[in-house]
Amino acid sequence: MKVRLQQEKLLVFLPAENARELCDQLEKVCARCHVTWQVVPNSCLDQPIESWLTAGWPEGGENRPALSEPMLLFCGLSSSRLGKVLETMRQENMKPIRHKAVLTDHNRTWTPRALYEELEKEDRAVRQAANGPEAGGKNT
């Protein structure tokens, strides 16, 4: 089953702390880019993305642990619109968000927590490669 969205949307997964400032900044960015955005409740973190994206948030589960850092999931945005959102985030001097993904047919069956863990692994691999001797960096 392909995930079909009616509109372009940015889904936001927030850590337990410092969420207010990020929400204020995303409000500005999304308004400038004419993209809707929504904070995803923690009750969705261990449910497949496609299940609640099409049917709505699951009941209960608000006490599930939050992600340790924010994560953005871009849904239905064209590459030009995605580029505009990312550029606007830079123009607004937003603190960088390391965990960003685009919803695909491949990752739509994942849970947000699994997606976050995959992004974390990719980030570690990039950092290690950048610090490796072949990249001119130091081994750590």
What does this structure look like?
The chain is α/β, with parallel strands linked by helices and 140 residues long. The protein has one domain (9-135). The protein is 39% helix and 13% strand. It is built from four helices and four strands, in the order E-H-E-H-E-H-E-H. It has helices at residues 19-33, 49-55, 79-91, 112-131; strands spanning 9-13, 36-39, 71-75, 99-102. Strands 2-1-3-4 form a four-stranded mixed beta sheet, sandwiched between helices. Helix 3 links the parallel strand 3 and strand 4 (99-102). It starts with 8 loop residues before the first strand and ends in a 9-residue tail after the last helix.
In short:
The N terminus is likely disordered.
Helix/strand layout:
Elements lengths: L8 E5 L5 H15 L2 E4 L9 H7 L15 E5 L3 H13 L7 E4 L9 H20 L9
Parallel strand pairs: 1-2, 3-4
Antiparallel strand pairs: 1-3
Our estimate of the beta-strand percent is: 5-15%
Low-confidence stretches: 1-6
Write down the overall geometry: globular
Number of helix segments? 4
SSE string, helices as H and strands as E? EHEHEHEH
The Cα radius of gyration reads 16 Å
Could you tell me how far the N terminus lies from the C terminus, measured between alpha carbons in angstroms?
Answer: 44 Å
DSSP summary, beta strand count = 4
Q: What's the assembly state of these chains?
A: single chain
Major sheet characteristics = 4 strands, mixed
Q: Helix fraction?
A: 25-40%
